[in-house]
Amino acid sequence: MGARVESSGQRRAQWLRRWGLTVWFTTFVGVQVLTFPFLSAHPPALAWSPELLRLLPWLGGVGLGMGSLFVLEGVGPRVLAPADPDLGAHLLGDFGPRLRGYSWARRTRWLFDATLCWFVAGVTTIVGSSLLGHALAEAASVPALLDGWPPLLRLLVAFLLTDVHSYFRHRLEHAGGERSWMWRRVHRYHHEPEVMDLWAGMQVHWLEALLVFGPPCLLLSALGFATWELLFLFTLFLLITATQHVGSGWTSGPIMGQIFQGPDAHLRHHSVVQRDRLENLADCLTLWDRLFGTWVPPRPGFRGPYGPGDSGPGSDAG
């Protein structure tokens, strides 16, 4: 009886490990996507008005999604440990205690980093790019080419444009043996954590938001995207990429992991080994890595070590 109970627990943990993150992703990202046509039919104003209240369910969904992802991160060591002995030893003997051992001072600093990057610099970049794009389009009489397109098709085009731009931006940050200014002064900071989880994933330089969202938002606004649409795209993008740094044993599963960059693919990108950091560069879709030769399938059981490794300031690693 004891063996059957243990076997049942292992099967349950293995199922959760394979599909738990997929269920989360389908629920929260799916709800956000399905919200877009409603908001397109009833576009909210961006000045204070009753119409702005239409944004509250959308913003509430984003907040609930991120909060529940932190819960998944926290319960991962206990829930997933029975999946196999090696994973259990790692989660309960290494990852779990280190995650719980983060000081609140460190967590506060990381939260400040993320807030400064995504919700101060990010929103400022999007709104500024939108205003500039609209002004340039009006001055140059650029037609709003995407007007009249079905809402979900508009969202898909904008998402693909933003994601492919972010792929090449990320590739440029790691180019040239990681000796560029973009790596040394901006992106290396994100690779410094040696324990990967949602908290460490929030360690980002504020300039990242400008590099990620500035150019595509400028172009999309010139093509007719409203500011609120760009802000919606911004939150959807962040929600999709949030899973990448979940380090407590969850995986993207056999379906989602083939389409989106999940933790099992992205955590390898945070390896101390430089050649690993030059792979799996896309932010959302694995499509770009597959098309441009930087995709490497997830390495089963890869758990680091993580960090900037052999390309620190002054390093000759190539």
UniProtKB/TrEMBL annotation:
Pfam families tied to this protein: FA_hydroxylase
Gene Ontology molecular function: any one: ATP binding
Keyword vocabulary terms for this entry: Membrane, Transmembrane, Transmembrane helix
Annotated compartments: Cell membrane
Record-linked InterPro entries: ABC1_TM_sf, Fatty_acid_hydroxylase, Sterol_Desaturase_Related
A GO BP entry: lipid biosynthetic process
Any one GO cellular component localisation term in the record: plasma membrane
Transmembrane segments: 21-40, 52-72, 110-132
Ranges where the Fatty acid hydroxylase domain occurs: 156-294
Its membrane topology: Multi-pass membrane protein
Location, primary (coarse class): membrane
Superkingdom of the organism of origin: Bacteria
Record's protein name: Fatty acid hydroxylase domain-containing protein
